[in-house]
Amino acid sequence: MTLAFPGQSGTLWEVMARDAFLDALGDTVDRVRILEKDPATLDETLKLACRLEAISKSSTPPGESFDDLGRRRARAAGSGESAQNDEAAQRVDRLESALDELRRELDRCRQENARL
Fold it and tell me: Could you tell me the residue range of the domain that residue 57 belongs to?
């Protein structure tokens, strides 16, 4: 919001910032729960979102956990789902390796360009 509307403030700015933040969450259930509380500012909206996230993570059923990125890990699935999950995990690993390799190549190119 600061980049889009430099120097702006006020009630309308707060409403636009709040709505943009809630749209970025991508979770309509949390969006509705937050809007029910009618936060007036972006700070209040952020506090409510953090509180809801903390509550939802603390009420996780036994056996369900989260990975390093905060994504919910699936509970024990059927053999077909498990195979799909394993395949997806392998694809993610390959993509992350390729991304790391491309980043190294980009850094190398930047260093060569800096020398020129």
Answer: 1-62
Q: What is the pLDDT of residues 72-100, one digit of tens each?
A: 666 555 556 677 788 888 999 999 999 99
Dmax over CA atoms of the chain, in Å, equals 58
Q: Are 49 and 25 in contact (CB under 8 A)?
A: yes
Residue 50 and residue 1 share a domain: yes
Question: With a threshold of 0.70, does the pTM exceed it?
Answer: no
What is residue 66's three-state secondary structure?
strand
> CA 96 to CA 100: how far, in whole Å?
6
How many Å separate Cα 113 from the centre of its chain? 34
